[in-house]
């Protein structure tokens, strides 16, 4: 019994040393199909950057998680609130998106994209008059440089002008089209 335990104690270091001599060593192989583990002491990648990349890939749920991590690290800044609102738009959660985007535009640092995205949410909810006002503010903040904000403003004004005939006209279907990292455009689907 003692010899067996002694043999196991001697064999353990021998097995570990042989494993360390293997091509992959004790760590994961470089050609492994698995994601690498966490590197101790490495700086974390900015959650906003990761979230915007995930948004571009259409992974809205993962982007929402990345933006939430960014909120934990940076606080609820205008950029984080706007990003959280954009992810919720992508997920179709218009009520949550509206609340977040309204919080984003309440600050003095609000960017035109946050105003535009709030207008998109209002258009989707059928609040055309308020959406037109929001798009006008976004257009003014952007100095008229963005074509997508201009197009959204035109569409909101057209819907506001034609609101009297909405009952007589056939219902149009609209689709949110993503442009840029957190900018959405409303397009009608024929």
Q: What do you see in this structure?
A:
The protein is mostly helical. It has one domain (45-161, 173-189): Tetratricopeptide repeat domain (Serine Threonine Protein Phosphatase 5, Tetratricopeptide repeat), CATH 1.25.40. It is 59% helix and 7% strand. The chain is built from 8 helices and 2 strands, in the order H-H-H-H-H-H-H-H-E-E. Strands 1-2 form a two-stranded antiparallel ribbon. Helix 3 (60-74) runs antiparallel to helix 4, helix 4 runs antiparallel to helix 5 and helix 4 (78-90) runs parallel beside helix 6 (112-124). 31% of the residues are buried.
The CATH topology is: Serine Threonine Protein Phosphatase 5, Tetratricopeptide repeat
Total beta-strand segments? 2
Q: What is the global morphology?
A: elongated
Structurally, how many domains make up the residues? 1
Sketch the topology as an H/E string, one letter per element.
HHHHHHHHEE
Q: How do the strands line up in the largest sheet?
A: 1-2
Note the beta-strand portion.
5-15%
The end-to-end span amounts to 83 Å
Number of helices: 8
The CATH C-level class name: Mainly Alpha
What would CATH call the architecture?
Alpha Horseshoe
Q: What's the pLDDT, averaged over the residues?
A: 79
Tell me the major beta sheet. Answer: 2 strands, antiparallel
Low-confidence stretches: 165-169
The structure class reads: mainly alpha
Could you give me the name of the CATH homologous superfamily?
Tetratricopeptide repeat domain
Rg, Cα atoms, Å: 26 Å
How helix-rich are the residues, as a percent range? 55-70%
